[in-house]
Amino acid sequence: MKKLLAMLLALALILVNVAAMAEGLPAGAMKMLDQNLEADEGTAAAPTFFKVYSMEGNTGTLTYDEEITFTVEQVTTTYKVEHATLPTVGADASNKVTITVPTTADGVEIPINLPTDYTQAGVYEYKITETAGNVQGATYNTEDKVIHVMVYVVWDRTQNPAVLVPTANVYVADEEVKEQKSDTLKNKYELGNLTVEKTIDGNLADPEKYFEIEVTLTAEGTVMTPVTLTGVAGNFADETATSLTIPAAEIAPTKTITLKLKGGQTVSFADIPANVSYSVAEKNITNIETEAAQITNANDPEAYRITYTAPNGTIAANDTAAASVENYKNMEIETGIALESAPYMVIMLIAMTGAVLLVSRKRRIA
User: Fold this and answer.
1) DSSP codes of every residue in 123-169
2) Which of these, 217, 199, 192, 218, lies nearest to 56 by C-alpha position?
3) In terms of Cα–Cα distance, which of 106, 104, 148, 96 is closest to 123?
C-alpha cells in the first residue's frame, strides 16, 4: 500500500511539473514538445551535433586540416517564436570549426551555443547549414541536408524568481523527409590513381632508350594532400630515386611532371584527388606514321610512330586511370631475291642444267 501511494505521489509531481513547464507555450506547441522529447528525449541547454569526414581511396595514412563554416538561420512557421539573437556554432562561437580529415567513425562533436537572452516562452526553430568549401575531391552537404535545432523555452518555477529555461532537440533534416532522427552530417574526401606506361615495338626500336613523357595534372579546387609517384631508378630527375612526392601546394592549378621511361616501364601516381584532370604527351620525338617515313628515318633515334592510349582523362574516386604511349619503328629486311624476278631465275636455271647435260653427253660419245 505504501509503495502504491509513493508511486501515485511521484506521478502527481511529474504531472504538476509538466503542466508548469507547458504554461506560456502557444496553443498546440505542447503537443510538438511532447512528440519531439518523446522521440529524442531532448537535450539540455548545451546541444551538439556531429561531423563525420571520411577519406576514401587513400593508399597511405594521409590527413589534413580543413576549416568548415556554418550559417545559422531562424525558421519561422506555425508555433514558432521569432527571436533576434541566433545560436552560434563551435567552441569559440565563430560558426567556424577546424576538423582533421579523416575523422573517427563517430565524428567530431560540435557544440551549438543557444541564445541566453530569451524573454518569451515558446518554440524556436533554427537551421544550421554547412558552407561548401573548395577542396578538390571533397563532397559537402548541400542545402537539402541541414541540422535543425528545435528549442523549447519554458518557465522553470522551481526557482525564485522563475527563469526561462531552453531545452533543445537536434536532428538532421532533409527537405524531402522532414525529420530523420540523426544528429550527424557527413562529408567525404575521395582519391584516385593513375598509371603511365611506355611500350615499344618494331625491329628498329631501341630497348635501352629513355623516352621523355610529360604528365600534367590540373585541379580546379584546393589540393590538400600530396601525390606520390612510384617507378624505378632512372624514371625521375634524380636518376637514383625510385619514387617522387609532389607537395599538395604545387599541384593546383596545374603541375607538369617529366618522366623518363624505357619500353616496358610504368610509373604509378597515387592519391590524386578525385576530378583532377590529367594529360600525357611525349617530348622530343618526331612522329613518323608511314612505312616510307620509317625507312627514311631509320637512323634517327628520335623518330618513331607514336600511339597514345587514354592520354587525357579525369581521375575517378577509388579507381585507377591507365595511360600508355607506344613507340614503333620497323624496317622490312630484304632476303636477296625479289619475287618478281623469280620466273627469269627459273628459266636461267633450266638453261644451265641443259648446258651441263649436253656437255656431259658429248664427253661420253667422245
Assistant:
1) EEEEEEEEPP--BTTEE---TTEEEEEEEEEEEETTSSS-EEEEEEE
2) 192
3) 148
Q: Which three cell numbers stand for residue 167?
A: 531545452
Q: Can you list the domains of the chain with their CATH numbers?
A: 25-182 (2.60.40.3050), 191-328 (2.60.40.1140)
What single-letter DSSP state applies at residue 180?
A: B
CA-nearest of 183, 184, 185, 179 to 36 is: 179
Q: What is the pLDDT of residues 40-52, one digit of tens each?
A: 344 555 799 999 9
Confidence at residue 311, expressed as pLDDT on a 0 to 100 scale? 97
The answer to pTM > 0.85 is no
Pairing type for strands 254-261 and 266-273 reads: unpaired
> How much is the pLDDT for 334?
64
The widest CA-to-CA distance across the chain, in whole angstroms, is: 158
Give the 3-state secondary structure of residue 17: helix
In a 13 Å sphere around the CA of 275, the CA atoms on its Cβ side amount to 12
Residue with cell 508548469: 20
Residue-wise pLDDT tens digits, 52-102: 999 999 888 899 999 999 999 998 877 788 889 999 999 999 999 999 999
